[in-house]
Design a protein that fits this description.
- The protein has 248 residues and is of the alpha/beta class.
- It has one domain: TIM Barrel.
- It contains eleven helices and eight strands.
- It has an eight-stranded parallel beta barrel, surrounded by six helices.
- Helix 9 links the parallel strand 6 and strand 7.
- It is globular and about 45 Å long.
- 45% of the residues are buried.
- It binds 1,3-dihydroxyacetonephosphate.
- 1,3-dihydroxyacetonephosphate binds next to strand 8.
C-alpha cells in the first residue's frame, strides 16, 4: 500500500505562513512527481486556515482537520463539527492526539464519539494512540495502547474509514525516536488488534509519529506495518516534509 505522509501543523503560523507552506508542498510535489508513486499526502492546518489552504492544494494533497466535535451541530461554543470539515472539503480528521488527551482530558469514549461523527460525514478518522514514558518504563505500553484502541475505535471501523497513528508521547517534539524494534513490536501488536476489531484490519494504515525527520524516515519506513508517518515539527518546512516522503 502507498504510504500516507501526513503533516500535523498543530497551532502554528499565520495565514500567510499556511498559504506559503501549502504552495511550497504542492510545488515540491510538482517538481518531483515520482513521489506520488509510493506516497499519498495530507496536510492538517489549524481550523481557521483550512479554507484558504484548500485553494492552494491540488488533488495530490488531501486536507484534514486536527479535531472535531463529538456533537453534530448546535450550541457547542468553540467546536468545529465534522460536517463543517466535510464542507471545507476535508478528507481526514486527526482525533485523540496525545496533546488533546493530555491538555483537554479527552477520554477514549469521547474520541470514539468524535470518530463516529467523522465517519457519518464521510471523513477518515486518524485515531492517535501512544503510551507515556512512565507507562513504557513499567512495561505497560501494549496494555495502554490496546485499551486506547479498543475503546476509541468507532462502529464501522475499516480500512476505508480509519487510520491509526502510533505516537509514543515521549517521542513527540522531543527529538527522541522509538527504536525500530519498539516500533516493529507496537505496529505488529496494533495490526493484530485491527485484524480482530476492524473490517479489513490487515489493510488499515498504521502511521508512526514522533520526531520523524528526513534523516530517520528511511529506517522507520523500513519497519513492517509502518504505512506512513504523522509529522509535527518537520511538516512546517515543505523541504523536510517532502524529504521524509523521499526517504521512503
Ligand atoms: P513531532 O514530529 O514534532 O514530534 O510531532 C509529532 C506529532 O505529534 C504529530 O502529530
Amino acid at each position: 500500500m502507498k504510504k500516507l505522509i501526513a503533516g500535523n501543523w498543530k497551532m502554528n503560523g499565520s495565514m500567510e505562513n499556511a498559504l506559503n507552506l501549502a504552495k511550497d508542498v504542492v510545488a515540491g510535489i510538482q517538481e518531483n512527481t515520482q513521489l506520488l508513486e509510493n506516497n499519498d499526502f495530507l496536510v492538517c492546518p489549524p481550523a481557521l486556515h483550512l479554507a484558504p489552504v484548500r485553494t492552494e492544494l491540488t488533488s495530490a494533497v488531501s486536507l484534514g482537520g486536527q479535531d472535531c466535535s463529538p456533537f453534530d451541530k448546535g450550541a457547542y461554543t468553540g467546536d468545529v463539527s465534522a460536517a463543517m470539515l466535510n464542507d471545507m472539503k476535508c478528507d481526514y480528521v486527526i482525533l485523540g492526539h496525545s496533546e488533546r488527551r493530555q491538555y483537554y482530558c479527552e477520554s477514549n469514549m469521547l474520541i470514539k464519539q468524535k470518530a463516529e461523527m467523522a465517519l457519518e460525514q464521510g471523513l477518515k478518522a486518524i485515531i492517535c494512540v501512544g503510551e507515556t514514558e512512565g507507562e513504557r518504563e513499567e512495561g505497560r505500553e501494549q496494555e495502554v495502547v490496546g485499551q486506547q484502541l479498543l475503546e476509541s475505535l468507532p462502529e464501522g471501523a475499516s480500512a476505508d474509514t480509519i487510520v491509526i497513528a502510533y505516537e509514543p508521547v515521549w517521542a513527540i517534539g522531543t527529538g527522541k525516536v522509538a527504536t525500530t524494534d519498539d516500533i516493529a513490536a507496537m505496529h505488529a501488536y496494533i495490526r493484530a488488534q485491527l485484524k480482530s476489531n476492524a473490517k479489513d484490519g490487515d489493510k488499515v494504515r498504521i502511521l508512526y509519529g514522533g520526531s520523524v525527520k528526513p534523516t530517520n524516515a528511511a529506517e522507520i519506513f523500513a519497519v513492517e506495518d509502518v504505512n506512513g508517518a504523522l509529522i509535527g515539527g518537520a511538516s512546517l518546512q515543505a523541504h523536510d516534509f517532502l524529504g521524509i516522503a523521499q526517504a521512503g
